[in-house]
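Q: What residues go here?
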């Protein structure tokens, strides 16, 4: 594994490396022989920074993120963050699902960086790369400390998750919402159980995620749903879209935002391999649909968005508007649309 590019100093010199994320000699590798962690390796590190600026070229509607983990046991076959594992010479397929980097000092770093005189209380987005409430969080419990620091500094933040573990921190979310703006979005792209088991094998079921929406709403914390990804030819039939929007509305979501599957390098190869095993008859159709790059054609995105708008209005929740405060785009929202294409997908900001 290549830690040197993230280390305080390379092996051949005693000089520090500018921008290093953590010390190579501070990596502790662990495995746990329990059913929920069987087959997963954790690399515990002490990060050098945790509040990270989004690159200026990005069109994400936020500037700062906190990501306490790298890699994700949710094992979503389409996850765009897979490519980030290649930076450590880790496999972007099974390695991404099973080799999890844990920034064990994330809570103390958040508190320290928020206390810096250089920090001016900007909005912080979480869950934008990998899920901060994936299974590892049940053991490492990094989010309570992070949320406590954000609450204590009255710093606005938002969370996007597929994890039900967020309900463990319900009281902290409620306390934070009393002093600052808090946004929560749950990702539910479809309610088809068979599709869920094959493309999101490590996640809670869509029904359980919608229970999270319901529970947050009942406790006064508005929760939107990112209907992401809408998967071409597998989850985009009118009856599937209708069933998903109907369930989202019934759960009490404040908004629904559809985002069509996009396939960046790293994720594209893994997804297409999966598609060839499970749905070989669709490989040619995907190659044509995504022939121009990572994004589905504008006409397709518009068709999906228009239909979901109509369904949302029918079920009384309506489309998300740009005025909605502190919402989150999904990990599967394009950071920059295809050149020359008009935006055709909703955002939550």
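A:
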């Amino acid at each position: 594994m290549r830690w040197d590019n993230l280390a305080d100093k390379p092996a051949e010199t005693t000089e520090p490396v500018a921008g290093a994320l953590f010390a190579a000699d501070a990596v502790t590798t662990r495995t746990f022989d329990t059913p929920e962690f069987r087959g997963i390796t954790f690399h515990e590190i002490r990060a050098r920074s945790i509040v990270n600026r989004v690159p200026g070229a990005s069109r994400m509607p936020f500037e700062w993120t906190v990501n306490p983990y790298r890699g994700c046991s949710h094992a979503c076959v389409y996850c765009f963050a897979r490519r980030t594992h290649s930076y450590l010479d880790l496999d972007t397929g099974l390695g991404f699902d099973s080799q999890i980097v844990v920034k064990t000092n994330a809570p103390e770093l958040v508190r320290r960086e928020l206390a810096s005189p250089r920090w001016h209380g900007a909005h912080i987005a979480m869950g934008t790369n990998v899920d901060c409430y994936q299974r590892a969080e049940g053991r490492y419990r990094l989010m309570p400390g992070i949320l406590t620091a954000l609450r204590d500094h009255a710093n606005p933040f938002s969370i996007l998750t597929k994890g039900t573990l967020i309900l463990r921190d319900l009281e902290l979310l409620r306390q934070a919402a009393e002093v600052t703006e808090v946004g929560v979005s749950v990702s539910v792209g479809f309610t088809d159980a068979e599709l869920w088991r094959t493309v999101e094998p490590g996640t809670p079921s869509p029904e359980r995620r919608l229970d999270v929406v319901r529970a947050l709403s009942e406790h006064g914390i508005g929760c939107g749903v990112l209907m992401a990804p809408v998967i071409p030819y597998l989850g985009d039939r009118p009856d599937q879209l209708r069933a998903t929007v109907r369930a989202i509305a019934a759960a009490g979501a404040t908004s629904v935002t559809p985002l069509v599957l996009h396939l960046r390098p790293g994720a594209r190869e893994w997804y297409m391999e999966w598609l060839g095993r499970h749905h070989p008859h669709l490989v040619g159709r995907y190659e044509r649909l995504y022939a121009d790059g990572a994004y589905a054609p504008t006409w397709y995105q518009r068709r999906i968005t228009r239909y979901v708008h109509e369904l949302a209005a029918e079920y009384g929740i309506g489309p998300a508007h740009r005025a909605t405060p502190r919402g989150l785009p999904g990990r599967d929202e394009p950071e920059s649309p295809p050149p020359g294409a008009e935006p055709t997908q909703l955002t939550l900001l």
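A: Context that may help when evaluating the design: Residues 298-314 form the longest helix (17 residues). DSSP finds eleven helices and eleven strands in the chain.
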